[in-house]
Structures are given as C-alpha cells and as structure tokens.
Amino acid sequence: MPAVYQLPIVSNIEVRGGAYLLTLEAPEIAHSCAPGNFIQIKINFPGNGLWRRPFSILDTDRNNIRVLYKTLGRGTAALAEFKAGGVLNIIGPLGNCFSNPDNDTTVLLIGGGIGIPPLYYLTKRLTESGFPRQSIHFFNGASDYDSLTYLEETSELGINVYAVTEDGSMGIKGVVTDGARQFLSGVDNSIDPPKKRIFACGPAQMLKAVSKLAAQFNVKGEIAMEALMPCGFGICMGCVIKVADPCSSCHYSFKRVCQDGPIFNASDIIWD
Amino acid sequence: MTDLSIQIAGHKYANPVWLASGTCAYGRELADYFPLSSLGAIVTKTITLEPRLGHPSPRVFETPSGMLNAIGLQNDGIRDFISNKIKFLGQHRADLIVNIAGKSISEYCQLCEQLTGISDIISAIELNMSCPNVSNGLEFSKNAELAEQLVKMARKSTHLPLIAKLSPNVSNIVEIAQAVEQGGADAISMINTLVGMAVDIETFKPRLSNVTGGLSGPAIKPVALAMVYRTYQQIKIPIIGIGGIMNYKDAIEFMLCGAQAVQVGTANFVNPMASIEILNGMQNWLQEKGYDSPSEIVGKVEA
Fold first, then answer.
1. The domain A3-94 is classified under which CATH number: 2.40.30.10, 3.30.450.40, 3.40.1190.20, 3.60.20.10?
2. Residue A49: its pLDDT value, please?
3. pTM of the predicted structure, to 2 decimals
4. What integer is the mean pLDDT of A227-241?
5. Is A72 exposed, middle or buried (0-12, 13-18, 19+ CB in 10 A)?
6. ipTM value of the model?
7. Which of A168, B2, B99, B256 is most enclosed, with most CB atoms within 10 A?
8. Cβ–Cβ contact A239 with B under 8 A
9. Smallest CA–CA distance from B19 into chain A, residue
10. Which of B33, B59, B217 minimises the CB distance to A240?
11. Do the chains contact at A235 and B269, CB–CB below 8 Å?
C-alpha cells in the first residue's frame, strides 16, 4: 500500500555516466516494493514547481531504497543539491511491476539512457531468487562510453552484459535495439519464442523500436513507460498512453502510466 | 470543540472541506491514504451519458505555481458509474456529489433522472457547465439565459440538490451566478479552470494536444477569491469556493470572501493527504480563534 513518507537521505552521490545515486532510509517501502515500482519525490526548488517527480526504484536492501537519476531538468538539478542527513517527502511504492519469467526462459533486458534502474532491479531480484545467470542478457545503451549508466554494477551481478554505444566507443556500435536484434537473430534460434522474454525501459523512440523488435521475433515484451505525472497515483488522468482495448468501441483506450502501468505489454501499446 | 458541520440545501455535511471534481477520480485511489468519510464530501470526476475516451497525451503541463490540463472528460459513462463505481463509494460512506456534463440540456436532464434513481447514496448533483476542454463545454456557462434554462430543466428532472459549477472564462461571472440562482440552483461552486496555453519554443508545438487547457493551482487563487467575493455580495444561495487551495489558510480566505465550503483540487495531486491536512488546520484555526462553527466566518472579510 503506498503512503506519504518523510524519508532521511542516507547519501546522494554522483556516479558514473553523469548520474546520481540517491539512497533513502525507507524500511516500509523496501519491504513492499517490486521491480518496476516507482516513487514520487517532492523537490522544492526556486520557481515554485508544483508537481512531484517520479523515479524508478533501482534496488533495495533491508532498510533502504535507492534511485538513480540524471540531472535533466530543474527538478533533478535541485535534487542533486540535497545532502546526506536531509529529508525528502515521498510517496511510494507506486505503479505495477514486471512479471516473473519462468526459470527456463532466456531473458533480454534492453535499457537506454536513464532507463537502466527498473531493469537492474529486476535482474537483481531474478539472480537472488536463483534464476540462471547465464540466461540473462542485459543490453545497456547510451550515446557514448561516458554516458553509460550503472554498467559495472550490472556486470557484477554475473549476467551477460552488452554495452551498446552510438559512437562505438564501447561494445557494440549502434543503438541498443541493434544489439538486441543481433542477439535475437543469432545465437538462440533453437529456443521457442515463448521461452524468450524482453523487458525494456528508456526513451520513447527506443521503446517503440523494442516493441517492433518483440513483434518481429514474436517475443513477449514488457515495457516500463515514462510520462509527465501530476499525481503519480491515478487521480488526475494526466499521464495516459494509448493502449489496445478490445472493450472500447474504437479498440483503444487511454491508460494511466502511473496506475495502470508503468509496465505495459509491448504488444498493447499503440505508438503514434 | 468547534462543530465543523455545515448545511447546504437542507443537507448536513460533516465539514466544509470537499474534494473537487476531476482531482480525485471516483475516490478509490485516495481511499488508500485516508478514510474518505473524514471529508465533507467527494465530488466525482465528470460523468457523461456515453463513455468518452478523452484527449491524447500530452494532457498536462506544469506552469509557474500551477498546471494546465486538457483531459477531455475521459470517463466510462453513467451506466458504468451506476453499476460499478458507485458501489465502492457507497461502502465508504463518503458524502457523494456527482458531477455531470452533457452536450445538450436534454442530456443533462437524462443524467439527472438516472442519478435520481440512486438518490439514497447521493447528496447532490454538480452541473459541470464550465469544462473548457471539450467543444461546447463552456456554452452553458457563458450565456446567462442558457445557464438559467439548463438549471431550470435539470431542476425539473430531479429532487436532488443542484450545484452549478461556474466558469471564470466569462466577462461577468456574477450575472451567470444570478441566472443559475434564478433557475433554481441550490448552490454554486466556483471557479473551474481558466483557459490557458503553453508552447514549446524548440518545436513550435503547443504543450497540450488540445492546444489550450485549463489552468489550476495556486496561480488562480487570487482570481477565484475575487470572483467568490463579488458573487457573494449579489446572491443568496451558498457558494462553494474552488481555486488553488493548497493549505488551510487558503481555505479560510475563501470562507472569509463568502464560501460556505471549499473544494480542494490540484493540491490532491501533489499531496494525497492535502484535504485532510486542510481540514485539521481549519479545525485548529477555528478553535484557537474561538469560533463554534465555520459558518461564523463566511463572508466576514472587512472590505
């Protein structure tokens, strides 16, 4: 059950890829959240921003939750200024979560830019629950080597990690879906499509390409969507995306990213 | 102990802090955060005769001290409301006000008739005469004669108390208020959002798919206060104040300007507990000042 909390900041430090790692003491959330869930943080900054800002949960330990973010706007720039010992007002855990693949599934995680956190969290949970590490393939994409986020930490989970950079400064050259496409069309033709699963998070254009990829290879995909969210818990109807809906007279409806998502089946999303 | 209860159109509400239409959906999500019955009333998101998909994204944009929205009255229609959504609200014993909108007077009347069938769990009907984001949404709120006619016909369709929700996007809101009073409205709620716009200077595109939207939040509070104040001088039916109420001080300001009750809107998005905090703050303030009832401060601004 989500609730409003005043959470102590354990640390808020700059890490690789120009990202920041925020650790909050939040035992209630740490015990109840799942990969894909997010929190809404109230960041007070000059200019009187009204809304909270949503952040995917990166992972948890006994008492803490962590989020990984980049300073892309005024809100996140202000968040980076908060120091250990401070307090943040947050709501969480919010949203739905990824489904759990069966142990004999080949899992592809496709993350671009700052879309890594929910995928890292899912990977960590899978490996902790005994899911075979060699069956997990994590594609981490960015424009260049310096912008890759949480790359080493993901590798430390003992899974297959593929860096994909647009300028070729590390790993596969291209966009992250190119890496995933090579993989899907290569090594594992012997595996039945139902035994493959894609989980993705990143910029909208990338996710659209992932949806195409999933359809092309007949693989079930789950996508973590992002949106501007005035509330984050389903009351404002502001953060909707177009989703296939057989019950609707025009075969689609608008679903809330915050409450009906943020995780959607790739095949349900209608990309305009 | 201050008794916070108030009477509007013969109905006793537990207190004057309500949730505004379109900012609390149908109560289900906020019930995770507090008992809905703690509040004076919950006003549902607008319900129409037929389901509406609403506008595509982007539907919202953050602006200085406020936000723009153009949701487009997304809802599943009156039949779904009566057969599905009402059950939950009934169980939570929240005083329920159902907000409705029609494309014509006849549609408003049909909605009123259908809601009369479940009048045992509804405290009042709020007529949304003022949605700025659907075509013709504002017509009934702009033209005094049409406004009066609408309320008159709705009055004939139901015995339930009628609250007319007015738009600020008019040259003289007092004239519209007087017209709906004449038409038989039991109360007025004001104000709905102000028509606004924002543009992305990189893409030259409007920030909303609907191009314009409704401005809400603290940015509109001074406008709302002035309108409530001016209207209060000219009508006899109660006013429910709406517009950028973020804390109990804002709510007290509205009451001093003439509002019997207030509706909390945009604040719910930022803090799901906002309405409860406003209620507690108001209770303490009234208590400290020695008032026995919130009614004692209504319209008491010394202007």
1. 2.40.30.10
2. 80
3. 0.95
4. 96
5. exposed
6. 0.94
7. B99
8. yes
9. A235
10. B59
11. yes
